[in-house]
Amino acid sequence: MTTLPALIVIDVQRAFDEWEAAGKRRNNPDAVTHIAELLKAFRARGAPVFHVRHEGTKPGSSFLPQSSGYAVRDEAREQAGEPVIVKRVNSAFIGTDLESRLREAGIATLVICGATTNHCVETTTRMAGNLGFDARLVRDATWTFDRVGPDGEAHTAEAIHAMTLSNLNGEFARIVTAREAVAAL
Question: What's the CATH architecture for 6-183?
């Protein structure tokens, strides 16, 4: 059993770089830098790190295993001994052994970061809270993209990010900064 939190790094894959290069606008341009800082601190402390990758299943997905977008950014690449959880839906808990790995290791606290705030990060964070984990979502180590709602109204990445954090705060997770997460180690 460990009293150290586990770092969960979600979908820091090149597909998002490709989306941005194609003109999609995102928020939080320093998110990957903060993820790298978290990785460095967790590794230095000997805290567990779990990497999550999204594997697309639909034709044309940017996350198909044979596509360039499936690859992980260099700053977030796993090191020897760090497990990689491959998921095919938004939650890192569905169709994977993530929960059983965490429970077997006696891990109660999860520090969650990655992409995108309002999709896989949010879904995984909600489930972590519902499963009884002490979830901490790192606000400056996640990002999202501008979106258009069902009514045709445009929503900025900043507004979507802020609303997602507001929705999760207190009920599903504690919202923290990378600096706070490192200090809590």
Answer: 3-Layer(aba) Sandwich (3.40)
> Is the whole model's pTM more than 0.85, yes or no?
yes
Q: Please, is 43 exposed, middle or buried when counting C-beta atoms within 10 Å of its C-beta (0-12, 13-18, 19+)? A: middle
Question: Phi and psi for 99 in degrees, rounded to 5?
Answer: -60, -45
If you count them, how many residues does the chain have? 185
* pLDDT of 1 strictly over 60: no
What is the predicted pLDDT for the residue at 2?
66
Report domain extents, the chain.
6-183
Evaluate whether 160 touches 117 at the Cβ level (below 8 Å).
yes
Q: Give residue 44's pLDDT.
A: 98
What's the Cα-to-Cα distance from 138 to each of 12, 17, 25, 37, 83, rounded to whole Å?
A: 14, 20, 20, 12, 20
Q: Are 23 and 126 in contact (CB under 8 A)?
A: no
Q: What is the tens place of the pLDDT at every residue in 105-120?
A: 999 999 999 999 999 9
Which tokens sit at 7?
A: 């770092």
